[in-house]
Amino acid sequence: MSQSCSEKLIHIIVSSILEERIEEILERSGVDGFTSFDVRGSGSSGLQSGHLEGESNVMFMVVVPDRIYPVLVDNLNQLMRRGHHMMVFSSDVAVITPSKCMNDASS
Amino acid sequence: MTGIDSLLIPAVLFFVLGVFAKLIHSDLKFPDGMTKGISLYLLMAIGLKGGAELAKADLLVALNAIFWAFVMGFLIPLLGYVILRFRDRIDAMNAAAITAHYGSVSAGTFLTAIAFLDATKEAYETYPIIMMVIMETPAIVVGLVLAAMARKKLAAAQAGAGTDDAPSIEWKPLLHEALTNGSVILLLGAMIIGAIASPQSMEKIHPFIYDIFMGVLCLFLLDMGMEAAKRLKEFKRVGAYLVAFGIIMPLLGGTIGVIIGAIILDFSAGGTLLVAILGASASYIAVPPAMRYGVPEANPSYYLTLALGVTFPFNVVVGIPLFYQMAVWMTGS
Asked: Which residues, other chains included, contact B325 with Cβ-Cβ below 8 Å and sequence gap of 6+?
């Protein structure tokens, strides 16, 4: 039976203007890798069609161990308190790649 | 060329086609990133053209035009802010972000006005191109300062109410964003290149900056027509007061531009129309990113819907022929 470990998957949907800022926050929080891609959609900030710089969103996917999770959430909250519109949500995931298991205990 | 004739130029007709395509739910769509690429081309071409012409220009007239570009860049957003804040209709943060768009310039509208003048065979001065470059930045600074003042006031009120966690203002990245904005760098850089490059070397890129320019502008306006139509359903969210502002503000700004162009700068009717468009148009390329970064409390759907969904179509269809008539009347040509 293959081994896996439990970690948190965080999705961050944010204006592409803040892309570098989010990368800095991830680095400062101790995250050593992420995936990001351009996304479209609509919500409280109106239509985000991705056609012009001011209406382009980017989505980050980050998998973090339990010890980094609260640090990252706190740092993201600081940015949101400044008024930046962001959609952040997390879920529990099972990481299968052995070298990516950062939690101390694996199941 | 007046009335409906003035609208029968390819650029405007492609804009109308874009709106129509979206309204009938056509699957017409531009590939990802194409609009951003086209807008880079248009800014580069207009910068090179302007630079080449300015190399032959009168320095004193250019300096005078630059001075009045600064005046318009600071005056128009302040005027817009006063209108938006009248009787507390719009909150200070949204008012600051919206008004910054009106102090800056829509390159798309400006280029459509050039297409209009080319079609009418009306000559125009090239100084408004450098005025356009200048006007990109002051309005962003005005918007950031107005927002900072509102934020300070709000923080003081919150401190009085026992909460004191107002964020400090990070001026350095904000000013960096305003002054190194991609479109400012590209326009200014292309203008300098156009001014210092030898006429022989400029001749080699003539097809790139002149021959295909209007065709590319048509493509851009086709996509902008579709983008503007997509914003129609956002009108409800924005509200009647802001939609009315999106029409009144270009009328005020355009009139200020006509007065400055015709009386103060003594331009021809063509040049005056271009100054009017500088005053009437609202940026939807350079300013939205700056406001999203610098005034995050404001709702982007408000300023994007106004700049792209209300003011841009208004200027393309009504503003350009209207301000042209005013310019002809004021210059007596």
From this structure: B2
pLDDT single digits (tens) A54-95? 788 999 999 999 999 999 999 999 989 888 889 999 999 999
ipTM: 0.73
**Count of structural domains within chain B:** 1
Is B25 domain-assigned? no
Task: Compute and round to an integer the Cα radius of gyration of chain B.
Answer: 20
List CB contacts (< 8 A) between A83 and chain B. Answer: 93, 167, 295-297
Residue B134 maps to a domain: yes
Closest residue of chain B to A39, computed from CA coordinates: B32
* Torsion B187-B190-B192-B195 (CA) sign: negative
Position B149 in a domain: yes
Paired strand residues for A11? A61, A89
Does B26 map to a domain? no
- Model confidence band, residue A106 (pLDDT cutoffs 50, 70, 90): very low
pLDDT reported for residue B140 = 87
User: Hey, are the CB atoms on B293 and A82 less than 8 Å from each other?
Assistant: no
DSSP of B144-178, one letter per residue? HHHHHHHHHHHHHHHHHTT---PPPP-HHHHHHHH
Q: Phi/psi class of residue B121: alpha, beta or left (left: φ > 0; alpha: ψ in -120 to 50)? A: left
What are the residue boundaries of the structural domains of chain A, listed by start? 5-100
pLDDT at B221 over 80: yes
* A105 in reach of chain B (CB within 8 A): no
Domain that includes residue B119, residue range? 7-14+33-157+167-331
Q: Could you write out the DSSP letters of every residue in B251-291?
A: HHHHHHHHHIIIIIS---HHHHHHHHHHHH---SSSHHHHH
| Among B189, B182, B184, B180, residue whose Cα is nearest residue B48 | B189
* Token output for B116: 């209009």
Answer for the pair B319, B172: CB distance below 8 angstroms, yes or no.
no
Cβ under 8 Å to B: A residues 20-79: 38, 44-47, 49-55
CA dist A61 and A14 (Å) reads 12
CATH code at position B122: 1.20.1530.20
What is the CATH number assigned to the segment(s) A5-100? 3.30.70.120
d(CA B307, CA B185): 22
